[in-house]
Amino acid sequence: MDVDDVSNISGLVEDVVAASKVPAKRRGAPIRPTVDKLAAAAYERGLLPEALSDLVGLLTRPNHLDQASLGIIARHLYPASAVSSNVILQIVGCLGIGELKPSLPIQATLLRWLVMVYHVIDSPTILSRAYPVLFNLLDVAAIRPQICHVLALVTRRKDVQPFRIQAVLELSRQTGKDPALHPDLEWRIRLDDIQAAHSRKYEGDAATARRGGFQVRHKSFGRAKKSTIPHVRTAHATEQSVTLEEINDATAFVENLEKIMLPSQLVAVLADPLLQKFLLLRPNEEAFTRISNWLAGSFEISGRATRIRAPSSTFSACCRKLNENIFLPLEASILDNSVKSQLALLRFFKELLRYWHGQLLTFDEIPVHAPPAFTAIVDRAHQLALTITQTSPTITAEFAIIEFLEHHSLAVVSRLCAVLSAYKQNFQAAMTAKKSKSQRPGAQPITSSTYPLHYINRFNGFLMDICNCVWRMRGFTDSDPNALGCLSILAVRELEDEALDKDGPRALATRHPGPVTQSSLARLRETGGLALSWQDYRLAVLARLEDTGLAGIPDLMRNTMKILKTGSRVSQASQASASSQRR
């Protein structure tokens, strides 16, 4: 929030805290209007940690505010950021019966607040450490339902002891059934909105960097909008096992990776990022089958649209179901003949392919079902893109289609180079053409002035960027420890295999370890490896690209680099020279 907002809320908090220390008859003015202003400001912008701590301290200590004002404050404790452990301890310490304790209705409200903010506590284990205190408060009937709800969130296998089981059984026999609790979903939604707005405005990338890109947000209950996807819940946990619900940071996740127990409803992976990471790092065939069966059953039974953020861990499960047209019911439920629904489905396909690509990188070998799965999704997306261009030829739609096509693959780069090569040839033809005698009278001749200079310079910049990467090999350098030389080692491997096939095992004393550089080729020749010049290596790379159907890159190089305009393949003379040097 802005400085003025912080100052305004801080001032209101100070006024309310000061008034709480003075009996009502001695105050110069009623405090209720100030309380109402504070509640409105907290609902609109949330409370920073200092203001939240001051108000919780006010609620948990003896004061002179009326119960109505205290209730308003307790119901408007919207934290703008994480809730500190000190605030939680303040609330736990105020619970129970005694002269210095808050009224039982206020205690009940504060316990409900703990349930609502449980997912934003900076260290949720603080409530687990307070488990004995909370359990012993079950005798207080007025706050027993709220205590039970908090205990339901924090109970772990280690907390289940025989004496506690006996105590709960006795309470259930003595008191009968306590009323069920229903969380205030509107309050929770407002809290999430405040937290998201504060995070975007004040934390952003810095907060993400501090967390190392790792964030856990456990959901204790759903939003007002009904969802068919269950939350992460783990049943039958043992003392030796660890549940995902207990993981709150990256360190705990890594240390307990092998101990974590699979949750009861694995399909929660569709909405839970932590479970997605877990199945990515610990793949489980049975888990994928269960997810696949749930998806198939859900899509066949439900005719309603279901928003799914498909995780990478559903790759194996979904791929095997494509022959059963698993996405047809999904398309039928989403598409309503509007461009908006078509673009939403296209974005879904884009995200699905992106997740699946990340999953595919973790495999040692490409699964046999992966290529047809990718092909099926891409073909369907292409048909959808064609429909969109025909029904809605707008800039927004075109950008959405281009965004889908922007996959990081050599085939896409090759096609792009082919387009640039065609443009370059036509630019050159247009700029060097002379006015033809057969040209229609009055027609504008094509000259170099037809295109603005800055336009030509920008296009040439694109060409030079690609030439620097592909031909000048600045993209193949190994000076960066993370560089892999674009894996162009495959071209050398083919030449080495050819030499071995032709001259036998004695032809090469060693193979190139990769990545390939000008100096590495010289060292290779000196140690009895393939005798290959830097120039011939680069030509071999272009030749291999052309042989594998990626002719766009060699074509652009021939049309851009003068040295290549006479040809782009490894010459016979170069091959003969290399062969003679090996012998």
Summarize the structure in words.
- The chain has about 575 residues and is an all-alpha fold.
- It has helices at about 5-20, 30-45, 50-60, 65-75, 85-95, 105-115, 125-130, 130-135, 145-155, 160-175, 185-210, 250-255, 275-280, 285-300, 315-320, 325-335, 340-360, 370-390, 395-405, 410-430, 455-470, 490-505, 520-525, 535-545, 550-560, 570-580.
- The longest helix has 26 residues, at about 185-210.
- Helix 1 (about 5-20) runs antiparallel to helix 2, helix 6 packs parallel to helix 9 (about 145-155) and helix 22 crosses helix 24 (about 535-545).
- It is built from 26 helices and no strands.
- It has 4 domains: about 5-185, Serine Threonine Protein Phosphatase 5, Tetratricopeptide repeat, CATH 1.25.40; about 210-215 and about 240-260, no CATH class; about 265-410, no CATH class; about 485-580, no CATH class.
Could you give a quick summary of the protein structure above?
This protein has helices spanning 3-20, 32-45, 49-60, 67-74, 85-93, 104-116, 125-129, 131-136, 144-154, 162-175, 185-210, 250-255, 273-281, 285-301, 315-319, 327-334, 339-360, 370-391, 395-405, 410-432, 453-470, 489-503, 518-526, 534-547, 552-560, 572-582. It is an all-alpha fold. 26% of the residues are buried.
